[in-house]
């Protein structure tokens, strides 16, 4: 069973994609969702807020998803937050880099509600197992 009180931050420079992910999360029962249009805005929100989960695009202006991920992992106050990376490109080097930088999971666009749910639940279960 998933914790529907989790606070999500969706990071994507494309507002339509943020809206799609927000809609899918809502369908899955997650209503506590905020958005950021790039990694720099996301990092400010993460440092100022109380988020439990980040769903981030990789290719964005100002600060891309890899740099955001690295900043999160290097910040003692944020490093525990799971980060699900989302990208339109299933390049092997991107998947490897995401894993090396500490991504909790990786999903390729376009994805279904079932895929998103499966990834989120897997990450949550892994967290609960290590808690």
Description of the structure:
The model has no long low-confidence stretch (mean pLDDT 93). The chain has helices at residues 15-27, 39-48, 65-74, 92-100, 113-130, and strands spanning 8-11, 33-36, 53-57, 83-87, 105-108. It has a five-stranded parallel beta sheet with strand order 2-1-3-4-5, with helices on both faces. By secondary structure, it is of the alpha/beta class.
Question: What portion of residues belong to β-strands?
Answer: 15-25%
- Spatial arrangement of strands, main beta sheet: 2-1-3-4-5
- Number of discrete helical segments: 5
The overall pLDDT, averaged over residues, is 93
Q: Main sheet, how many strands, which sense, barrel?
A: 5 strands, parallel
Structural class: alpha/beta
**Rg from C-alpha positions?**
13 Å
Distance, first to last CA: 16 Å
| Overall form | globular
Descriptive terms for the model:
131 residues; alpha/beta; 46% helix
Q: What's the short story on this structure?
A:
With 131 residues, this protein is an alpha/beta fold. Helices cover 46% and strands 17% of the residues.
Task: Please render the helix and strand layout as text.
Elements (H helix, E strand, L loop, with lengths): L7 E4 L3 H13 L5 E4 L2 H10 L4 E5 L7 H10 L8 E5 L4 H9 L4 E4 L4 H18 L1
Parallel strand pairs: 1-2, 1-3, 3-4, 4-5
Helix pairs in contact: 2-3
């Amino acid at each position: 069973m998933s914790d529907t009180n989790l606070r999500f931050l969706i990071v994507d420079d494309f507002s339509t994609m943020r809206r799609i992910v927000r809609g899918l999360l809502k369908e899955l029962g997650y209503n506590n969702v905020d958005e950021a249009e790039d990694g720099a805005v996301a990092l400010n929100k993460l440092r100022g807020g109380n988020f439990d989960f980040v769903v981030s695009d990789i290719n964005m202006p100002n600060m891309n998803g890899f740099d955001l991920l690295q900043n999160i992992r290097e910040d003692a106050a944020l490093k525990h937050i799971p980060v699900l990376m989302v990208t339109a490109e299933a390049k092997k080097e991107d998947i490897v880099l995401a894993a090396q930088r500490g991504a909790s999971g990786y999903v390729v666009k376009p994805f279904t509600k079932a895929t998103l749910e499966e990834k989120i639940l897997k990450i949550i279960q892994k967290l609960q197992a290590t808690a």
